[in-house]
Amino acid sequence: MRIWLYLTWHPSPQKPEHYLKKTLGSKKNIWFIQVGANDGLINDPLIRLISMYNWKGILLEPLPHVFQHQLVPLHKKFHNLTLVQAAIIPNKETLCIYSIEFSKKRWATGLSTFRKDILEQKIKDGYVEHMAQKHGDKLPQNRESWIKNETIPITSFEKLITTYHIPKVDVLQIDTEGLDAEIIKSFPFHHFKPEIISFEHENLSNIEKESCFEFLSKHGYHLTILERDAIAIMPLHHQKKAQESDCE
């Protein structure tokens, strides 16, 4: 499997995987935190890199059904991974997550979000109806029943790092349908500076995007903006300065 991936997998420059592989593919002992892992397979930027390079890390997925029936069965063979059924939201202990009620397929679970307005907009735009018809899901007549909510547990980066004895974070991967910027700003950059931060900007407002990009730039990151995602890479000379600071 690994040899086949080495020889055949060449991710597009429009995908986060391209930058993750290019920047970290030749390095050993890579640690990551993935916030919003979903099933850990479809459209997942890390699954091939985990398989190819034996990356170590933590995957967080808040939806109970997705976590128990999809993420855990897929990743239980990887002893270098820790799976956590929770989300990361600053200054919260529990929070309500909104998702499509009538389907548990990947297209639907991938729309789950802490911002109800984002999901309502996707219904209003006709996207949900289009995807349901495409995947053979029957649409309930009452649109108000299309969205369900669940209360899920919340954790923090500090708690994860302490509880699971994480020695470093090379990659921070985030896909939370609208809260990516807020989660990035809650990361303890005084403790770790990930070499790459990959996140989805598609559901951020222009103000949220500008604020997040400026925040990352001030921390020394160089940004590459893709169609849906953004990649923040820490230049080598900044990495060395950060390591020297940690040793002081």
Describe the 3D structure:
By secondary structure, the protein is α/β, with parallel strands linked by helices. The protein folds into two domains: 12-94 and 151-247, Vaccinia Virus protein VP39 (Rossmann fold), CATH 3.40.50; 101-150, no CATH class. The chain contains eleven helices and ten strands. The strands form two sheets. The chain has a seven-stranded mixed sheet with strand order 3-2-1-7-8-10-9, sandwiched between helices. Strand 9 (222-225) and strand 10 (229-233) form a beta hairpin. The longest helix has 13 residues, at 206-218.
Number of domains: 2
Instruction: From the 3D structure, determine the CATH topology of the largest domain.
Output: Rossmann fold
* Low-confidence sequence ranges: none
Architecture per CATH nomenclature, i.e. the level-2 architecture of the largest domain: 3-Layer(aba) Sandwich
Helix content range? 25-40%
CATH superfamily of the largest domain: Vaccinia Virus protein VP39
Supply the CATH class of the largest domain: Alpha Beta
- Strand segment tally: 10
Radius of gyration, whole Å: 18 Å
> What is the mean predicted local confidence, pLDDT?
90
Major β-sheet profile: 7 strands, mixed
Strand order of the largest sheet: 3-2-1-7-8-10-9
DSSP helical segment count = 11
Question: What separation lies between the terminal Cα atoms?
Answer: 43 Å
